[in-house]
Amino acid sequence: MGGPEGGRTAHIITYGCQMNAHDSDVVMRTLEGLGYRGVDRPDEADLILVNTCCVRDSAEEHAFGKLGELRRVKERRPGTLLGVMGCLPQEPEAVERLLRRAPHLDLVLGTNQVGEIGEILAEAESARGPVVHVTEDWFTPPPPPPPRQAPLKAYVNISFGCDNWCTFCIVPHTRGPERSRPLEEIVAEVRALVAGGTREVTLLGQNVNSYGHDLARPVAFQDLLAALDGIEGLWRVRYTSPHPADFTPELVAFIARSRTVCPQFHMPAQSGSDSVLMRMERGYTRARYLSLVAAIRREVPEAAISTDLIVGFPGETEEEFADTLSLCEEVGFDRAHTFMYSPRRGTKAAAMPDQIPLFVKRQRLHRLNAVTDRLSRERNEAEVGRVREVLVEGPSKKDPKRLSGRTPQNRIVVFEGDPERWVGRVVPVRITAANTWTLFGEPMPA
Ligand code: SF4
Asked: Which CATH number does 153-381 carry?
């Protein structure tokens, strides 16, 4: 079977975090190497993959809903192969659940099998039933194939898995223990991207700043940042997600003087209450978190600080929740990603007593969002009148007649300008207006 322009076609539907988005990208690059062409619609594809997330119940239900829809696509287009990848198949008993609820599946691959898609596909093409490759034999995957064309901004995996076992989190189950890629291999990948035109890289890992401790010759995260700092043509380095417990004074000091690492600190606090942090087994206290914020403000005064917060963790009292609200006020977060706690099978927190009723979680989320949205708006409004260096990415998604880019602090800036002249360049922009999510400005004369 072939697509409208000949050759085999593939479509990937991605749920979840940046790690999943990057895995989808790596799979698509591998498929292109096998002669596939990406298409925008599942009903034009010979291969459809659903890259799943299981961080929250709702994400899992979305994936099952999508697999139900895709059954009809498969019925109309016999011969289409349908597969599932991502975190869901790695959950306890999830493969059985998947094959029971979606018996029309042809292949299921685990998070560590991303690099094996070619072999698994060849097996699925000749198999009579679903082909399942999900293991807990965790290893460090080989380097990904290079993209056909290097993007302006690229993601690069530096480590896989996590050793922290926060009590609410499914990731150590679904992505295994932490495995760092060798420093030289990462530097070579970034060099190749930069040679192709990439100007900004975001380093990816479940816990990026514990990078390197598991290598045969251990290195620190700032050793990797220092190596990247020396790559000519690389303008900006970001990383996600770091863990507050692994931010050392040396790392903050390095970032303060780095040429490329952006003044943007994403520090997932999760809660402002010591007793909740203890139950989450996060490895830091509110005081330690605040002292880190103070060090960042002192060393990198221009920094933006963002966070992730969970409301309704088991046993969370009104006082404990109030501690999260007061942490937000005390830090003045530039941005916050806020979530209701969702119990995940197999985690310690799912078995804790005093699960919080949904209506209480909803109400707390609403109250928290009111605070974090106000803080984001205030922090953005404080940008008005400043001049920021904006890496121009292309037309604004919401307003395609104008351009959009990001400041070093990762704020989105929308402004009028000539795409031919400015896309792919860093342009000084004077900020003239702001709302909760976006800055607006005018480019400064060259
Ligand atoms: S550090 Fe992050 S990925 Fe690791 S267990 Fe904790 S929340 Fe999950």
From this structure: 3.80.30.20
The candidate with the shortest Cα–Cα distance to 124, out of 112, 107, 145, 110, is 107
The three-point CA angle 218-222-223 to 5° equals 50
What's the rounded Cα separation, in Å, for the pair 271 and 327? 8
- What mean pLDDT is predicted for residues 292-300? 97
Domain 387-443 in CATH 3.30.590.20: no
CA distances from 183 to 205, 258, 278, 344 (A): 14, 18, 33, 34
Please state the domain extents for the chain. Answer: 8-133, 153-381, 387-443
Element spanning 307, H or E:
strand 304-311
Determine the pLDDT at residue 6: 60
Question: Quick one: which of 201, 270, 269 has its CA closest to 240?
Answer: 201
The residue behind tokens 């006020």 is 329
Quick one: CA torsion of 56, 59, 64, 67, rounded to 10 degrees? -150
Of 90, 209, 243, which is best to mutate to test ligand 1, by the most ligand atoms within 8 angstroms of its C-beta? 243
Pocket of ligand 1 (CB under 6 A): 162, 164-166, 169, 171-172, 206-207, 243
Beta-bridge partners for 250 = none
> Strand pairing of 335-340 and 200-204?
unpaired
Ligand 1 atom nearest the C-alpha of 241 is: 2
Nearest alpha carbon to residue 443 among 400, 401, 402, 411: 402
**Four-residue CA torsion sign, 119, 121, 126, 129:** positive
Q: What is the DSSP letter of 211?
A: T
Decide: helix, strand or coil at residue 261.
strand
Per-residue pLDDT tens digits for 344-377: 989 999 999 999 999 999 999 999 999 999 999 9
When the pLDDT of each residue in the chain is averaged and rounded to a whole number, the result is 95
Range 93-115 average pLDDT: 93
The enclosing H or E element of 133 equals strand 131-133
